[in-house]
Specification:
The complex is a heterodimer of chains A (170) and B (419). Chain A has 170 residues and is an alpha/beta fold. Helix content of chain A is 35%, strand content 18%. Classes of the chains: A alpha/beta (170), B alpha/beta (419).
């Protein structure tokens, strides 16, 4: 049973790139708590200090464009965010978020309606986003079956572990 | 129904039909990571319970981003990557024998026509210049490819880009890809492939094709593919480390749409801060003053690029108050540029020549920007803070435009210096 995700919205625009999420100069650690201190620092130097556990990044189109750095979803997790809601995600970031266990929700309606500081609630199991300020309720389209299977098995690492075990027996 | 390049290459590496939109398991020909992305990949590899990479001759670690090590933290990081590579017995080249990964690997014959290549670096798409389906991923995906020799891919739809007409001498591959980005935007090809065509490609040097394929990711694309012609095949054959099987698109391949450019009518262009799609003709940018020029990177650090910059700079001086940093992207390029006298042209002009590294492109080292500074760069991204201070500015342009700007001290069209 996936738990509810609840927090305040931090609203960003379109094309939030990975250099904004975590600048390249910080990429000498893979520790998410270290990366989290610098999350979004070039967009909003106060972000990491002011964000509360559970808070939610809400953004427009193409969130996470740019580099392939897996440090980007790790920094968001390290800052304490519970998830990202965006109109759309850049493809490498999308894969990296799934692989590192950062919940992401592609929902243009929920993204467009959110204002800074809105209380937002996400029910991942039901696939529903609720904006507590406006009362708006927004369905999230489920992942394709293969990705659901990946998530169900606990991510890519457990999937590969099972696959390697299967090959050793074959 | 015929197949696009992307669909044809994926189908040749998969047991499934590999029709557009299908998620397939795909065999991987080559998989690599760099000094930043290897340590997390090594950690994932261990978490997966993997013991050996699937093939030591097809898996590589290349230290290029913060190397030669810029500080203690990056030295520790590079050390972890080196130790992983040596413990696996996989391909590894030390500083002094490597180069920027996307220049070094194709020129060394590891990325070949018809291949499926994955790299833990977004500019892996550079390999599309030779007709490889090459795509960037994160470290965990890369670790899975190292462990299994396969990855999963969703077969992308393809936008065809036709470059027609006769290319003027001041138009480079950089002007062509920036023109495309200016038209379709940074998400214009999100989750898609780009496939390049048109009669302007026949005379386009392979080095310029690398520039174009390299920036496919700046449009959000998964891959940017050139169907291999004689020039690409002879480039690959003369360097190949293993046999390869080129793949071409079918005549009746289904494209999402076609974008057509008249290269003969193009002007040199630049991407102004802070997005690669903020593209304008250089002559319409208002000649802003600059503090620095960077000529190099996986986008524009190859011999054609260095030669173009040297052509402009020969017998001239870098403007007072401007730092010009030239970084050949590999030692092959460095040594050829030395033999041909280009490096001397730069140092005579008052430019800096550095050892191959990604360095300043990502604000790593050897040319980081202070607040309020502006740089004309031949690299691929001008996001806020990309080359240093979040209050600095980066303008992307061709090596010709960058060299002309270094001399003038302002963003300058190469035609206005050559005259």
């Amino acid at each position: 049973m996936e738990k509810l995700l609840m927090g305040r919205a931090w609203v960003f625009g379109d094309d939030v790139d990975t250099d904004l999420i975590i600048p390249a100069r910080r990429l000498v650690s893979g520790d998410e708590s270290v990366l989290g201190r610098y999350c979004m620092e070039d967009a909003d130097p106060e972000f990491a200090a002011r964000v509360s556990p559970g808070d939610i990044i809400v953004a427009g189109e193409n969130f996470g464009c740019g580099s392939s750095r897996e440090h980007a979803p790790l920094a968001i997790r390290g800052a304490g965010c519970s998830c990202v809601i965006a109109s759309s995600f850049a493809r490498i970031f999308f894969r990296n978020a799934i692989n590192t266990g950062l919940p992401i929700f592609e929902c243009p309606e929920a993204a467009a309606s959110a204002r800074e500081g809105d209380e937002i609630e996400v029910d991942p199991a039901a696939g529903v986003i609720v904006n507590r300020r406006s009362g708006g309720t927004y369905p999230v389209a489920p992942f394709p079956p293969f990705l659901q299977e990946l998530v169900r098995r606990g991510g890519l690492a457990p999937y590969v572990r099972e696959e390697l075990a299967r090959r050793r027996q074959a | 129904m015929g197949r696009t390049m992307a669909s044809a290459i994926i189908a040749s590496h998969s047991a499934s039909e590999a029709r557009e939109g299908e998620i397939c398991k795909v065999r991987v020909d080559f998989a690599f990571a760099n000094d930043i992305t290897t340590p997390p990949a090594a950690a994932s590899f261990a978490e997966m319970g993997a013991e050996r990479v699937f093939d030591r001759e097809r898996c590589a670690v290349l230290p290029d981003h913060f190397t030669p090590n810029r500080d203690i933290a990056s030295a520790e990081q590079a050390k972890r990557g080196r130790e992983f590579a040596l413990s696996q017995g996989m391909l590894y080249w030390e500083v002094g024998r490597v180069g920027v990964e996307h220049a070094f690997l194709p020129e060394s014959g590891y990325i070949l026509p018809g291949d499926v290549v994955v790299g833990a670096d977004s500019h892996t798409c550079t390999g599309g210049a030779l007709g490889a389906f090459a795509t960037g991923m994160g470290s965990t995906d890369l670790a899975a490819a190292w462990a299994l020799g396969e990855t999963w891919l969703k077969v992308p739809p393809t936008i065809r880009v036709r470059f027609e007409g006769e290319r003027p001498q001041w138009i480079t591959g950089k002007d062509m890809i920036l023109s495309l980005l200016g038209r379709i935007g940074v998400q214009g090809a999100r989750y898609m492939a780009l496939e390049f065509a048109g009669d302007a490609l026949a005379s386009l040097p392979v080095d310029d094709r690398f520039t174009i394929a390299n920036m496919a990711v700046e449009a959000g694309a998964k891959a940017g593919l050139f169907p291999p012609d004689d020039a690409a095949l002879s480039y690959a054959k003369s360097r190949a480390k293993r046999p390869f099987e080129p793949v071409w698109p079918d005549k009746d391949a289904p494209y999402l749409r076609t974008e057509v450019f008249d290269v003969g009518a193009m002007s040199p262009v630049a991407a102004l801060p802070h997005s690669p799609d903020n593209v304008r003709p250089v002559r319409e940018c208002g000649s802003p003053r600059i503090d620095q020029v960077f000529i190099g990177s996986c986008t524009n650090g190859r011999l054609e690029d260095i030669a173009a910059a040297a052509r402009i700079m020969k017998g001239r001086r870098v403007a007072d108050g401007v730092r010009c940093i030239v970084i050949p992207a590999s030692y092959e390029v460095y040594n050829r540029a030395m033999d041909l006298g280009y490096l001397r042209v730069f140092t005579d002009a008052g430019a800096v020549v550095c050892t191959p590294t990604c360095g300043p492109c990502l604000g790593g080292h050897t040319g980081v920007l202070a607040a309020g500074e502006r740089c004309v760069s031949t690299s691929n991204r001008n996001f806020t803070g990309r080359m240093g201070s979040p209050k600095s500015e980066v303008i992307l342009a061709s090596p010709l435009t960058a060299a002309a700007s270094a001399i003038a001290g302002r963003l300058t069209d190469p035609r206005d210096v050559e005259a």
